[in-house]
Amino acid sequence: MKKLNLKNIKKLKLRKAETQELTDRLLLFNLYLTQLLTLVIGAVWIFLQGRSVPAVLAVPQGMSFLWWGLGLAALMLLVDLLISSVMPEDAMDDGGINRMLFRHRPVWHIVCIAAVVAVCEELLFRGAVQYAFGPYWTSIIFALIHIRYLKHWIPTGWVFLSSYGLGYIYIQTGSLWAPILCHFVIDLISGLALRFRREP
């Protein structure tokens, strides 16, 4: 068995991977790993708050969560479209990650990604973090973890406002399914738009 060389371990350095270095497999692995961590952290945090994940994810009795979720999604997509039509493309740039993630992805997989991201992120941010800190600080944290947008103030501000909107509809409906639905619809439509967008 080969001995572990401590000198080689000390030379190891973490560095940011450039977009062109990412393979499709590595990108998907990173996506699903971060979502699994998000889900676990959210579930543990909810448990430590003396609540249960099934109770937080309980399906509501009425249909108002549908109107709140779909209504906010429609509004956010409209505003996003307006911002994208006015601002130069590089001002909204995320480093090409979204394009790489969705451009050649089958539709069923885009649906799957949108669903996984919506449930995992909303469970953590609206279900656990917002319960502890409220919608304002949750939205700041939410904007900060979307690190690929931080080079540009417009997408960062938009992520903050979007998160605040998700927190608001959670408060209004009392159901996590309103922000989950909204998040899912936005990611799904954005992913499909990138998938079927014609290249110049």
From TrEMBL:
TM segment ranges: 26-47, 67-86, 107-125, 131-147, 154-171
Keyword terms, alphabetized: Membrane, Transmembrane, Transmembrane helix
Superkingdom of source: Bacteria
Coiled-coil portions: none
All copies of domain CAAX prenyl protease 2/Lysostaphin resistance protein A-like, residue ranges: 106-189
Record protein name field: Lysostaphin resistance A-like protein
Protein's organism: Paenibacillus medicaginis
